[in-house]
Each structure stands twice: as C-alpha cells, then as structure tokens.
Amino acid sequence: MLTSNIVKFFASNLSANFLILFRIFRGCNGQARPASKIVLLITALSTASSVADDVFWGGISMREGEGASSVYPITSGLLKSDISGTEIKKQLIQHLLKNKERFTNIDLTVDLADGSAGDRYVLAIALGQELVVREKIGDANKLLVSLFFEMLIVDFEDFKVVSSVPINIERIDSSSSPFSDEEVSCIIADMMIGEDSQLLKVIDEKAGLVGIPKSSRSTIKVANVTISDRAIEFLPERLQVGSRYGNQVGHLFGSLLLSERRLALLPFSKDASNASMALVFQDGDIVNFDIPDPTFAIDLHLKGFAKVKSKKSTASEILFIYGAYVDSKVYEPFFKREYFSASEKKGASKVVPASNPSVDDFSVLSDALKGVMLSTIQKMNSDKNLEKKVISKCEL
Questions:
Q1: How many distinct structural domains can be found in the chain?
Q2: Would 280 be classed as within a structural domain?
Q3: Does one domain contain both 231 and 189?
C-alpha cells in the first residue's frame, strides 16, 4: 500500500490553476510625469539546470481568472491596442535580443513560439496582478501602482509549467489633482518599457535565474491564503472583492521567501479550482498546461490588522501604531505531515500633524505585513527540523 501511494505521489502533477491570455501592450505618447518615488519590490526564484536547454520566446501574456476588465481594469485597456502595442512588442524583442546572453541557464531563441515545430520549452512573461490604489490624503492625491509578473517556462511535450521567476515592481506617486485612467495607463506603460523601464531592468537582473529544473528536485509553493474580516475592513474597497488581496499576500510571501533562500518555488495561484494555465498565442491557439503539485506547501492566514492612537501623541503630532498578525504552516500535502507552524505579529508606526490627521493606512499596513512575513521566514530559517526535512530538499 505504501509503495502504491508513493507511486501515485510522484505520478501526480495536477495542482492550482490559472489562465494566461497573450495580449499586446500599447503605450502612451511618451509623456513623462514628474519625478516620483519608485519602489522596486524585486524578488526572483529559479529552477535552473546545469545544462543550457533550448527555450523559445513566447511573448507577453496575462494571467486571467475573473475577466481582464475586472482583474486588470487599467492594463487590460493597454493590452487591446493595435497601434502602439506592436511598437512595445518590438522594443521588448529588441531588448531580449540585445541581452539574451544574460539567460545563462537556457539557450533562448527570441522569436514567437508556435508550439508546433518542436519548440518544447517556451518562455513567457506573464502579468499576474495589477494593483492601482488612488486615495485623497489631505490636500494630496496619492497613487500606488503595483505590478506582479512572472518569467514562466512551459513544456509543450508534457504540457506543464516548468518554472517561474516572480518579479514585483511598484511605483508611488502624488499630485495636486486626481490621477486619471489615462495618466495611470501612461505610468504603467513607463513601468514596463522605455529607457527607465523597471520591468526590463529586473528581467536583465533575474535572467540568470530562469531555467529548467531537474526532475528529482523537491518543490514548494504557497498553497492557500485566507484573509479574516479583521483584515478586510482595513483594505481599499477594490481589494475587498474576491481573492485579489489574497493573491497579493501569496505572491509577496513567495517573493520574500526567495529573497532569503534559493528555492524551487512553484507559482502561487488563488485556489484549487485554478488547476491549469492556458496560453493564447499570436495565431489564436490556446494551449493548457498543468501546474505540478508541490512536494511541500505553505498555508497563510492573515488574522487581522490593527490601528491605535499612541499615548505618546502630543498636541501638535499624532502617533499611530499599526499591527499585522499572520499564522503560517509548512506541510507535505500528500502524506499530511506538518513540519512547521507559527503565529507572528509585527508593528509599524506613522506620525502625522494633529491639524491634518489623515493617514494613508494601506501603505503603512503593507509595511507591517511585509515585516510580519519576514519575521515568519526568519523563524522558518532557524527551525532545524524544517531545514533538514523541507528547505534543504528544495534548495537549488
């Protein structure tokens, strides 16, 4: 019976699922906005092999589960343009041709794969999440744009996802007037392409992590994310819908985990019903790929956020204290073995003038969430049992 179970375990390769639709981005008219605070949340994973495999360029794509217009309300408009989209595609191909030597673990052919001429492995850059938050704080209009991408390799022979290198880029801006959709579209386009493209910069930095894993490598992924009502009530209205914030939490934890260790991490997907990935290529063909079950899984539960006014506040300044609370566990899904569990909390603070007590709560809570995740990861790294039985088996 045990032998039978083990055979079934290694034969199984079905897991969480998401849809990728290929689109073509269109840009704006090159109008630059004033200098703004740019934050790069850059993390990457690799599943690189020691032999350079032939991999064909597949283009830019978009992970879609609930409809592009709701999941990517700004970017979906950019992707539908036939005017400047061709130019953006051309710029990306030219950039990859110029910098293909950075992909040290694969032999990259920069051309659109057709999936029918022996092109077993295909590289695609997939948009996994678009977050746009516009808030009025006092007299200022604040804008947060966060984009999550993955450099994905898919296998046309076994029809499965092979590896993923996640990338987060973020931009924070402010203006005396509200940001229009057109302005946000220009900002997103600037983040992706052009002389100051954050995306192209990170692709160059992380290209050496793209590769095809050995079949014997253990894998790990963030499998489940749950958000309590105590956390949802603090979120911007757009993030309170469906699993959008859960996606952000899952992607962020995986990214931070890889900033500490080089692990064979599989892509995060929002739920078990997302069991496959479909790629829509230029010729309109749609091909479905399985995401293999991980050897080990991580579950996260965001128990809540908190905000209190500190007793240290003065007549001229108010000190707000924020908190984030996360439960986590690491386990082996097939054998139902748990190797690690923890409950962590982390705080952050913000001082504001008493005359204008408006606060951008979400940005401070995001700092607290990142802090509690890093605390959880540090605790994982110091757990000798977890290191021996899980982490060391997933290291690249």
A1: 2
A2: no
A3: no
Three-class SS of residue 69? helix
Output the pLDDT for position 285: 59
Using alpha carbons, select from 370, 386, 228 the residue that is nearest to residue 304: 228
Q: Is residue 74 one of the residues assigned to a domain?
A: yes
Q: What is the pLDDT of residue 38?
A: 37
Q: What is the rounded distance in angstroms from the CA atom of residue 373 to the CA atom of residue 225?
A: 13
Local structure of residue 101 (DSSP, 8 states): G
Query: 235: domain CATH number?
Result: 3.30.160
Condensed to tens digits (0 to 9), the pLDDT of residues 145-182 reads: 988 888 888 888 888 888 888 888 889 899 999 999 89
Dihedral angle computed from the Cα positions of residues 48, 54, 60 and 61, in that order, rounded to the nearest 10 degrees: -80
Judgement on whether residues 236 and 375 belong to the same structural domain of the protein: yes
CA atoms of 390 and 396, how far apart (whole Å): 13
Residues of the chain under the 50 pLDDT cut: 1-27, 30, 32-50, 65-66, 114-116, 272-273, 282-284
Range of the domain at 195: 15-212
Report pLDDT digits (tens) over 361-387.
Answer: 888 899 999 999 999 999 999 999 999
Judging by DSSP bridges, how do beta strands 19-22 and 121-137 pair with one another?
Answer: unpaired
Whole-model pTM above 0.70?
Answer: yes
Residue 289 lies in a domain: no
Is residue 303 within 8 A of residue 279, CB to CB? The reply is no
Query: Do 202 and 226 reside in the same domain of the chain?
Result: no
Overall size of the chain counted in residues = 396
Q: Is 55 helix (H, G, I), strand (E, B) or coil?
A: strand
